[in-house]
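so my prof wants the structure for this chain in the tokens format not the other one, which i didnt know existed until like an hour ago. anyway here's the sequence
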Amino acid sequence: MKFDALKDLMAFLSQAPTAWHATQQMGNRFAQQDFTPLYEEEKWDLKPEESYFVQRGGSLCAFVMPKQTPQCATILASHTDSPALKLKPHPVFIEHSLPFLRVETYGSPILATWLNRDLVIAGRVLISNGDGEVEEKLVFLESAPMLIPSLAIHLDRETNENPKKIDKQEQLCPLMGLGQGCHDPDAVFSALLSREVSHKTLLGFDLYLVPYESPRILGSDSSLLASYRLDNLVSAHAALLALLGAQKPSKETLQMAIFWNHEEIGSGTDEGASSPFFLDILKRISLSYKMGEEDFLRM
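here's what i got, hopefully its the right format
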């Protein structure tokens, strides 16, 4: 059967609502193609002509070792995050007996596009299991969609002629439901997460609201693709396929794809492009070939 890159992209978009879901999907694909997973805290035993990948949260780097000491490198770079609405700590609050979520903007989302659409919570949670160990779990709470409702036209008749500026703190709070009998906001949130993740203690989370609708082909000639996170998962998907499909291994060229998280907020985190993640990997590769400092800098 002929490979359909567009259908594969749509499947990738559907399975990667957050940066951590994206790197999980990429890691699975690299592993299926005989890329060996590496862990930063362990000692590496890299071998020429072998393929590897290493993940740091929402960032991932994959590479193919050349047959001989690398003289240069071909590197594809992209990012895994997108503008979104991020849940604040202790996000649930009750107002007029209704439960809402407190959120903040991540990156620079176009605020009006988040109103009146089905949204779900997705991301990662850190929990304490029954043995007292810390575990990280990815979640996509499709069982509890919600929305940020705008005011009905008969309550704001000037909304078309004189639209008001959206208040990020007051008007981007998703309505979770009617909230019959809910009095403990933290208990409401814990119960919501328990639908997908069984946990004894919730230690922390990085959770976002993401659009619920799936990627779709549009247009009378089926020439348009509509989806959340086209920026920048299209580039990430292209780099993924390029490295998997490259003629490998090369004689003297290191082949690499790097996928960074947090580009939308400036990259200045331990998973971002300004972190030492990428340079440390290059250095460890050079050490495996016993390259000197000058040879490393020349590469």
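also thought this was worth mentioning. The mean pLDDT is 93.
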